[in-house]
Amino acid sequence: MEWALLFQLTVNGLIVGALYGVVAMSFVLIYKASQVVNFAQGEFLLVGAWVCWWMLTEWQLPFWAGFLVTLAFMTLFGIVLQVVVLRPLIGEPVISVIMATIGLGIFFQALMKWMFGVFAKPFPPIFTTERVSVLGLEVQTVYLLSLGISLVIMLGFAWFFTASKHGLAMRATAFDQQVAQSLGVSVPRVFAMSWAISAVVSAVAGVVVGVVNGVSSALSFYGIKVFPAVILGGLDSVVGAVLGGLIVGLLENWAQWLDAGWLNWGNMYAIAPFYALVLILLIKPYGLFGTKNIERI
Amino acid sequence: MVAMTPAGDFRASYQADTTIFPTRNSRIAVWIGLALLCAAPLVLGRYELGLLVNIGIMGIAALGLNILVGFTGQISIGHAAFFGFGAFASAWLHDVAHIPVALCIPLAGVMTAAVGLVFGAPAARLKGLYLAIATLAAQFILEDFFARAQWFTGGVAGRITEPFEILGWRADREESFFYVVLAWVVIMFVGAANLMRTRDGRALVAVRDHYLSAEIMGINLAYYRTLSFGIASFYAGVAGALYAHYLLFVSVEAFNILLSIQFLGMVIIGGLGSVSGSLMGAAFMVLLPEVVQAGADALAGGAIDRALRLGASISFLREMAIGAVIILFLIFEPDGLARRWRLIKAYWKLYPYSH
Q1: In whole angstroms, what is the distance from residue A144 CA to residue B200 CA?
Q2: Residues B213-242: b if buried by 16+ CB within 10 A, e if exposed
């Protein structure tokens, strides 16, 4: 038995899981605020990472400047998508809204492939020290940074929703749109803001993954992995999303360990979360922390 | 919109009121249309016939998805996986059990329906986006199964299939296979149109419109949701089997999530809950890449082509067109081509008093 490998994979799982948690959080943000299931979440990561990569390589900007430009761009991107595509669909059936985000997803994925090619492209080196030693375990600096960034984003979300005025307005809108409106909350602005924040946060995750693995269309798969995470945590729970992301990250790495050690099925890394997803839907469809939907006649 | 019938054409019974083709002229038009289609292989080239065959196959699959999405209000993002299962099932049945291909196609449909019922079991409890996510998982699990199950799919290498054969008549070319697809299209579309006239069909629509009211009126929700999933899978399986015996080769990669999205796109573009719309949507989706290709060809060699690398990235342009068309239809024509077609008909019927 390879305990060292298990340990390494567990650390991996926590780091990747934290990133899943961040993406899942931004997914839940959109769902809570505007009741839209965003199938294009992975494309937010993709677009953000490519924009940042483009700034750094073509325009030779330093990392911090390119990163800021990316964030500004993604804010605009999220708002434009919400206003142009999603706003006309308010009040339409679920299938229409889901299909619109799926359409957006394949559109931007193909656009990115067209503009930047299909092969993974590495980021220019950002850190001078490649790896550092933590508790006797050699860890790449980028991984540490990604864990740090994930934590910062999560704390930022916590602060935003409990203390800031806009965050409170968003929670009010999620609770009851009409009541929020009557209290002076601009619901269209909250919708646009939720999309902007979600796009920005996803883009940060995208840049982090891009720095670690290089930028390619594989990034958009994070958007798919979000579903097991949010279903596990409950579709409308921010805490659940973080926890769900961590569990999915650990689950797929442990599945890989089992697979490499005993099962030899291959591909368990990619597919295990979906088996878990079907099981959760059968047993507890509202997840760990989701609110159970009670319907009145 | 109410179907417009000529003055003096009164319906005296429920049976007369639910006929599929309400007027004599529409019945004549159907027969003329079928006769014209039967003559198509004599006139059209192989390429055009190939497009028609594709439209037919995709139309059957899209119709199945429309029964699920448009009539029952359930969402499936895993239709391509069931389509693929039908393709492999038919090839496998023929290889292993030596059943003639003509029988393999409906049997593959039944097998796919059985698999659909397994994955549809959650559908009895779930609805809306939870079901969408469950079927998304089904898509990935089945894709993984295809890549893994060497005995069933031939693994990464794919599986060779035999051409359709009945009573010594081999349909191994576009000219002959066209008739096979045409026959299946007629059977499946008449079947679906008739299904909607039965108690079961109305029950499905009731489940879509208001499931609580439907339940109160004595409709078994779990039964009809699962049934709808089974029917949709049956249609997908038959279409997949036809696809397998048309291409004479099936490989794992063909049935990815993009194809699932294309099926959903056909349903949206054709019109949710419209039998004929499914075929229109399929035609639109099959012809769309051809239009994109034609556009790129027209620009080939010019400055735009060189600057944007149109020729080399045609597959990305196609995907972008699919995404863009779905979004544009949702925003500007959410009821799809079926509504557009009704409007055109109404315009000419009422001409010049259409306002």
Answers
A1: 58
A2: ebeeeebebeebbbbbbbbbbbbbbbbbbb
Q: What is the CATH number of domain B33-350?
A: 1.10.3470
Nearest-Cα distance to chain B for A20, in Å, is: 17
Residue-by-residue pLDDT tens, chain A, 297 positions? 577 778 878 888 888 888 899 899 889 888 888 888 888 999 999 999 999 999 888 888 888 888 899 999 999 999 999 999 888 888 888 888 888 999 999 999 999 988 888 888 888 777 666 667 666 666 677 777 778 888 888 888 888 888 888 888 888 888 888 888 898 888 888 899 999 999 999 998 898 888 888 888 888 888 888 888 888 888 878 888 889 999 998 988 888 888 777 766 667 777 888 888 888 887 877 777 777 665 555
Count of CB pairs separated by less than 8 Å, A with B: 125
Interface of B with A in 20-49 (CB under 8 A): none
**Distance separating alpha carbons of residues B355 and B347, to the nearest angstrom:** 9
Question: Could you please report the per-residue DSSP string of chain A?
Answer: --HHHHHHHHHHHHHHHHHHHHHHHHHHHHHHHH----TTHHHHHHHHHHHHHHHHHTS---HHHHHHHHHHHHHHHHHHHIIIIIGGGTTS-HHHHHHHHHHHHHHHHHHHHHHH-SS-BPPPP--S--EEEETTEEEEHHHHHHHHHHHHHHHHHHHHHHH-HHHHHHHHHHH-HHHHHHTT--HHHHHHHHHHHHHHHHHHHHHHHHHHH-B-GGGGHHHHHHHHHHHHH-TT-HHHHHHHHHHHHHHHHHHHHHIIIII--S-HHHHHHHHHHHHHHHH-TTTTTPPP-----
The ipTM value here is: 0.84
- Spatial distance between the Cα atoms of B234 and B115, rounded to a whole number of angstroms: 9
Predicted TM-score of the model (pTM)? 0.88
Token pair, residue A279, equals 């099981």
The residue in chain A having the minimum alpha-carbon distance to the alpha carbon of residue B310 is A114
Domain residue spans of chain B:
33-350
Does B148 reach chain A within 8 Å, measured CB to CB?
A: yes
* Cβ–Cβ contact B334 with A under 8 A: yes
- Nearest CA among B276, B130, B78, B202 for reference residue A282: B130
